[in-house]
Inverse folding.
């Protein structure tokens, strides 16, 4: 945050004309860097093509067969020797979360990943979907094949793949139908709908998904949150699934889809997934914890993990007989998965039970109980990998060329901006409880300040009172806008990061839509404050003076809100943002022009005065109010301004210009921070491909 303060101090004072060249230079350098990387990629691709041309030629027939199999729009996923190690910060060591896990997911089948808590279920799911965050791991190795082609990038970026996270987060003020309609419209704007759905209207697609997922009864109900009553947890889970089914994916990953649901709602969710497999021929992979028997009956295949090791992988119907053959007989009328999970769990009651549990797990793992016949991974392996490398190289070069197409970027912006603006405007205008609280708080503050500084006169004593009133008005306006933004935007960022990870939209159209949607509403609250406090305190009673007063506090409110967004962009949680924001604002208040004479403080602190939005707001209000006043007896208003170091003639314009520059810079800074904090995932490497660097 020190960087934010220093950068603001050095940059906010620059006129806009001086900022444009620097912004253009940054964009030019970034574009040049991107082109150099793309050119380097193409050179590397050419080298790889030349090196592996012999293998590619040998694999043409096999590649042709794979392409024919892909035409049925189904997906088969295979993985082998998936290993993940994570960092331990305190001990500075690494531990194995997954150890040489192999398996497959058949087309049109429901695969469940099960195991005790901490067994690596979610880790395996994230590894298969290539969504393991870079900061969380030390290494990720293994091989994944999609329809026989080696996967080397984030699977979720494919149009036929979706990832449904465990936590369901939505905009609370939108209804179920509106949320689903937004997902449909956004998919159409990206041309991500299937060919059949492209010919249907958005309403028809929404109605079909609402019926398929059993959401028709709650279609017009708001999603809700802690402040607003909304839909149930099961309905949220099915809505989340419906939003991911808009693009008709062929491969779906779900992390704990039954978490937090009662047994009936959990069954309905899994039943909807089973229906998806049967009717759409989709491949579904989900992690699940302790399913009951009715849910187990819906599974086609199961992958059982314990301590990151594979205990079993194969059809669910063979699980009981497989464990029976190695001496573990499941009692009659007993849930087989519950029995197996109990069997491979660590009993930490004592050292003896821990050792006994570990021996059992080691025995099961050593017996190689998996029924997977995964020989297809090794058949024509070189041919398949060469074909996959060729296909991926061509696709990445094409994607790089598309990314550099400015016309497509502009077209995408204008398709996504109206949708995001519509959603943001509905969210902010329908949030009645929050808006009422904000309005009430501002009016109450105005009434309190108006009562304290009631009907100011032109006596010498009122000079200090006017300065005090303008100072507390400045602080109140800034803190109100800051705290609201810190609370709301940090939560909203979670939704945005998830949608961006799925490639839903770019950060620029989202940010522009948010700004345009919230500015009118955000201006209403400081205006209400000004309309109450101004006549009560009897500041200069002229329309131009009142208009300038309102303009200054509105601009300051916008700046404080922008600062809140910049802080929230780097804060890991709402609590962290609420701790950082007031601390920075206190520095701005101290150097706000009223408490400290900047000429008397050490030089290494004076830069804070230049970037203090409190000082800019306070100066604009003082110059507006004291210009033209004559205290009797006492000095003129201009003389009082000189004592604070303010320019009576040009101070208001300079302050408004400073606030505008600060606002613009904070918006650009927020945009940069949001773009820089985009989710990044660790690539999966393979020892066999260690010599290939792409």
């Amino acid at each position: 945050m020190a960087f934010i303060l220093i950068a603001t101090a050095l940059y906010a004072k620059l006129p806009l004309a001086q900022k444009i060249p620097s912004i253009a230079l940054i964009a030019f350098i970034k574009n040049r860097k991107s082109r150099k990387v793309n050119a380097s990629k193409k050179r590397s691709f050419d080298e790889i093509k030349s090196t592996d041309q012999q293998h590619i030629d040998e694999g043409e027939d096999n590649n042709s067969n794979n392409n024919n199999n892909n035409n049925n729009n189904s997906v088969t996923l295979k993985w082998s020797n998936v290993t993940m190690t994570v960092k331990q910060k305190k001990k500075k060591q690494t531990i194995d979360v997954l150890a040489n896990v192999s398996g497959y997911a058949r087309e049109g089948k429901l695969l469940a990943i099960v195991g005790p808590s901490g067994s690596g279920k979610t880790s395996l799911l994230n590894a298969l979907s290539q969504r393991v965050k870079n900061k969380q791991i030390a290494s990720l190795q293994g091989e994944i094949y999609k329809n026989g082609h080696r996967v080397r990038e984030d699977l979720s970026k494919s149009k036929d793949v979706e990832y449904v996270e465990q936590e369901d987060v939505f905009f609370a003020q939108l209804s179920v139908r509106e949320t689903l309609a937004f997902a449909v419209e956004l998919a159409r704007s990206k041309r991500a709908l299937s060919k059949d759905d492209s010919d249907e209207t958005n309403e028809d697609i929404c109605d079909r998904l609402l019926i398929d997922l059993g959401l028709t009864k709650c279609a017009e109900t708001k999603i809700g949150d802690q402040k607003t009553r909304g839909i149930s947890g099961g309905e949220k889970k099915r809505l989340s699934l419906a939003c991911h089914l808009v693009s008709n994916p062929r491969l779906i990953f779900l992390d704990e889809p039954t978490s937090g649901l009662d047994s009936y709602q959990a069954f309905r969710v899994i039943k909807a997934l089973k229906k998806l497999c049967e009717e759409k021929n989709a491949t579904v992979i989900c992690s699940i914890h302790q399913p009951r028997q009715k849910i187990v009956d819906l599974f086609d295949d199961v992958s059982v993990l314990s301590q990151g090791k594979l205990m079993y992988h194969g059809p669910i119907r063979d699980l009981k007989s497989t464990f029976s053959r190695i001496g573990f007989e499941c009692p009659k009328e007993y849930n087989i998965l519950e029995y197996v999970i109990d069997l491979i769990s660590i009993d930490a009651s004592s050292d003896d039970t821990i050792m006994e549990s570990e021996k059992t797990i080691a025995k099961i793992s050593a017996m190689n109980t998996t029924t997977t016949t995964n020989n297809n991974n090794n058949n024509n392996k070189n041919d398949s990998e060469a074909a996959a490398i060729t296909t991926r190289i061509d696709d990445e070069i094409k994607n790089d060329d598309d990314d550099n197409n400015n016309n497509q970027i502009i077209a995408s912006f204008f398709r996504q901006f109206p949708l995001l603006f519509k959603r943001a405007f509905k969210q902010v205008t329908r949030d009645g409880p929050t808006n009422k609280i904000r309005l009430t708080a501002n009016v109450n503050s105005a009434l309190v300040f108006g009562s304290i500084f009631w009907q100011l006169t032109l006596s010498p004593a009122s000079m200090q009172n006017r300065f005090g009133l303008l100072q507390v008005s400045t602080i109140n306006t800034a803190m109100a806008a800051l705290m609201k933004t810190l609370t709301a935007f940090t939560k909203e960022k979670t939704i945005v990061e998830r949608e961006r990870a799925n490639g839903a939209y770019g950060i620029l159209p989202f940010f522009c839509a948010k700004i345009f949607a919230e500015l009118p509403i955000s201006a209403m609250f400081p205006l209400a404050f000004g309309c109450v406090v101004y006549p009560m305190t009897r500041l200069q009673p002229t329309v131009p003076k009142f208009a300038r007063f309102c303009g200054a506090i509105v601009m300051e409110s916008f700046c404080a809100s922008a600062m809140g967004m910049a802080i929230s962009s780097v804060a890991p949680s709402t609590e962290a943002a609420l701790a950082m924001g007031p601390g920075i604002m206190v520095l701005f208040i101290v150097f706000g022009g009223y408490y400290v004479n900047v000429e008397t403080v050490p030089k290494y602190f004076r830069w804070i005065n230049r970037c203090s939005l409190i000082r800019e707001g306070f100066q604009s209000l003082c110059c507006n109010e004291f210009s033209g006043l004559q205290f009797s007896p006492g000095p003129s208003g201009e003389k009082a301004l000189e004592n604070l170091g303010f320019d009576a003639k040009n101070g208001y314009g300079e302050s408004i210009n400073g606030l505008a520059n600060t606002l613009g810079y904070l918006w650009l800074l927020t945009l940069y921070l949001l773009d820089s904090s985009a989710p990044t995932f660790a690539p999966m490497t393979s020892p066999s491909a260690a010599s290939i660097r792409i």
